[in-house]
Specification:
alpha/beta, UDP-N-acetylmuramoyl-L-alanine:D-glutamate ligase, 2 domains, 9 strands, disordered N terminus
Length: 336
């Protein structure tokens, strides 16, 4: 995987008695180290402010030189943290990136689903992004739920100023109610404005079929490969289709480029109903691209990560299971 868990030796014993454990939280150890350094400085110099601290990350220069990759995501907020902005930020952090966010909509919901959505004005969407991009150097973009037609146009205009930065496009969110009045127009706008700028478009086989109907009549003979090829002709470099044909007990995903099929992966189908599995996958791809992986490798590792988050998913409420993006950071006894 693109990330690795750093375990602290001396985990808490099964007895649960903290006094019987040699485990010390890293932050507590750092406080002890800092206290020792400060005492040493005060005892050995009359001008402690001139002495460089021996703890590297406490020196401003060292901190500034350790900036993680910055990933900017566009999407809706989710009070649960299962989908949208909150989910993306958790995935970015799990992959060693710092997440930046532009809110396109505010949702109301719980673990059973989203009840309502309020779109953010397109000017506010654009201003959020412009202010961030004028201040920080972003290494990857992810576009999730785009909201209104006006926001699609605003986001597309911003993306056109950054053609060399990877853009992961995952605009279809099954967890958010469909805006039927603008549904067809939104598909056309995304096809004409966002897809041509995308490094990778992620969508399910069902969503691809629906998307394809924005340029062709409904057809029982058109294949996933045919529709993916048409999307790539629009300018998108890769199309990653989830839920493609495979065994009943497996989930299969397929990556296409202008060269045709690049990779086809199958994973054991896990029991339960999940919220945010697709968004976890696209956010992980964006973060791995920000870390320098090429698209096929990022897709492979992101799938491994997403499958693991589902294997450790948690039931936080009475509805769907929520992927655990921090499963790797927990002690084995903490994972049920």
């Amino acid at each position: 995987m693109g990330t690795s868990a750093q375990r602290v030796p001396g985990a808490m014993p099964s007895s649960g008695n903290p006094a019987a454990s040699s485990y010390t939280h890293p932050q507590i150890r750092h406080i002890h180290v800092l206290y020792s350094v400060v005492v040493s400085v005060l005892l050995t110099t009359r001008c402690p402010s001139r002495l460089k601290c021996k703890v590297p990350y406490l020196n401003p220069g060292s901190v500034q030189n350790q900036t993680p990759p910055l990933v900017l995501t566009f999407g809706a907020t989710d009070p649960v943290g299962a989908i949208g902005i909150q989910s993306d930020l958790a995935c970015f952090a799990a992959m060693g990136c710092h997440g930046l966010s532009v809110i396109t909509a505010i949702s109301i919901g719980d673990t059973t689903g989203v009840e309502d959505v309020q779109h953010i004005d397109a000017d506010w969407v654009a201003d959020q992004a412009r202010v961030l991009l004028e201040d920080m150097q972003v290494t990857a973009f992810k576009i999730g739920y785009v909201g209104s037609l006006e926001s699609i146009a605003a986001i597309a205009e911003i993306m056109s100023d950054y053609p060399d930065i990877p853009l992961i496009l995952d605009p279809f969110c099954s967890g958010i109610p469909d805006e039927s009045e603008e549904g067809e127009q939104s598909l056309i706008a995304m096809r004409e404005l966002l897809v041509p700028q995308a490094t990778l478009l992620l969508l399910s086989a069902v969503e691809l079929g629906r998307f394809a109907e924005s340029w062709r009549e409904p057809s029982a003979t058109s294949t996933v490969a045919d529709d993916a090829a048409e999307v790539i002709k629009l300018g998108c470099q890769y199309v990653f289709v989830t839920g493609t044909a495979g065994e009943m007990h497996e989930v299969s995903n397929t990556l296409y480029s202008e060269e045709g099929l690049i990779r086809h992966d199958s994973w054991p189908r896990q029991p339960g109903s999940f919220a945010g599995s697709g968004g976890t996958l696209s956010a992980a791809i964006a973060a791995l691209q920000a870390n320098g992986l090429d698209v096929p490798e990022a897709v492979a590792e992101a799938q491994e990560f997403a499958v693991a988050t589902l294997a450790h998913a948690q039931r936080l409420g009475m509805g769907k299971l929520i992927p655990d993006r921090y499963f790797w950071a927990r002690e084995p006894n903490d994972i049920s």
